[in-house]
């Protein structure tokens, strides 16, 4: 019998009915009775002013008894003497004296009787999803027992509930529910505080091991549930105490002004009373139809439990193996054979897991295996990336060393040296990176390789620049050597085409220098731009070298010597090159003047670099900069001037003094020859 206990006048407007109604029948169908029944309960127009309470717990733990005591309802209570068979289903009743609807689940204890637990799980899920307060009813001695306290079922229900209803509601709230743990037959030797701690830790553990949808990975238990606790003494052994404590507990439901009232606005589903039946029907439909909700069988529950344990053990051993390699990698070492180690740890962990876990429910086994793989890989991946980073550094250093070695001595071909070193470097990296890779992962070393190639290119470029600089320096040195003698010879012959000679040997020497640069630059793979810069620098330095050589040849002392030599040649030697012996009557004055004036005329010739043949005139744009060294820019036209006007006058007067001395000496020599 379904037990429609009539309770007062069902049709009266003043006195609401307390008749109970079957919400879900034993065929797992949602019954159409709720809406009319709510009218009879007088709740149809309650708006939001109503609450829903449900209960969860093992069979025969006094759930119905508790509900009837708390709410004055008339749910069936198992009568030990008659062992009456109650009808499976979910029942609902209105609480006396409160706008509260109470749900009770009647069912067989599937676990004990070895029956299908589908109904038990669906009804538990329905209770959790539709109520504001879920009373979790358990014996004191069940606290801390996973199986005994139905925690496995609770975990499954949490899991499915999160998947189904875990996302935020349209108005952005998370659905919150209060889990009110009621501990039955509380003897009192273990204080409620301690039981609370144990239960809270259990809940937390259950939550952590839940498989959560990926977008809800970070959600905490506290995002969805508040936990509250109450304990009741033994109903038979401490009957009076039991009754009074139940009355105390009832106040937490009945009196909304109390601070510990279980009904908080956050728990309310915000469904107006007249829509409640429809809403609950929708929830039941989701519970019934959702594929994910082909609730795990006992086999699956067991599998989840065992696979977790096996996975944890495999992971612990794996972590132990992986740990010692972390530090060397972090400190920058390339660990030899890291890849083969990682492959061994990984496959070791998986085969341990497979060996023990594959006997369990296949779906659970492979789901947990995927979880394990992702944990293993997230441990190995930093090692892989660290190894790549260290390998990259090592390869780059080796590349530099090999380049420098290859360029030791003469006669190497720069491009060949770089090419060979680069090839070895990339090969070394690829070998190392491939060794470190682990099959079955999506790890890639492409980025690191790309980075390495880029840096190798940078190093080679820098090296080429340095080499080019060195080469330009060598060419400059050679140039200086080669230009020295021709300039000296030309400047020692003060003829009108003196500068033409200087400039034409400058030109031919520079040409040689340039072609020697270009020949070498080819093996350096220099760019057009680099060549332009280097040649510019070379020309400028060549010019400065020439100018320095000329400066040396026209320093005051050297130049005055040149003048003196020239003067002496014409004054002290005759046309045949025979030294003159002055006799009285010789025209010393005439010869002196001639020699002196001719010599003075040379000064303007030296004062400016000016060829007769204009095609020999060398020009250099004054802004030519020398990026290869830090030589300041200079004013090219100014470098053509050897002596300024003032300098010319100074040199003339100094030469005159020298010449005068010769004159006096010549005069003296005639006097002395007369005296002989
Ligand atoms: P339900 O299956 O969880 O709804 O349990 P019932 O309310 O039908 O009760 C099952 C049996 O436990 C009945 O014989 C009750 O008399 C008994 N019972 C109810 N409450 C308590 C209690 O607090 N302590 C003890 N020891 N027994 C209880
Ligand atoms: Mg019951």
From TrEMBL:
It is a multi-pass membrane protein. One of its GO terms (molecular function) is GTP binding. Residues 47-267 form the GB1/RHD3-type G domain. The keyword Nucleotide-binding applies. SUPFAM superfamilies: P-loop containing nucleoside triphosphate hydrolases. GO terms for cellular component: endoplasmic reticulum membrane. It is found in: Endoplasmic reticulum membrane. Keywords: Endoplasmic reticulum, GTP-binding, Hydrolase, Membrane, Nucleotide-binding, Transmembrane, Transmembrane helix. Gene3D superfamilies: P-loop containing nucleotide triphosphate hydrolases. Pfam families: RHD3_GTPase, Sey1_3HB. Residues 1-676 are cytoplasmic. The keyword Transmembrane applies. GO terms for biological process: endoplasmic reticulum membrane fusion. InterPro entries: G_GB1_RHD3_dom, P-loop_NTPase, RHD3/Sey1, Sey1/RHD3-like_3HB. PANTHER family: PROTEIN SEY1. This is GB1/RHD3-type G domain-containing protein. The gene is SEY1.
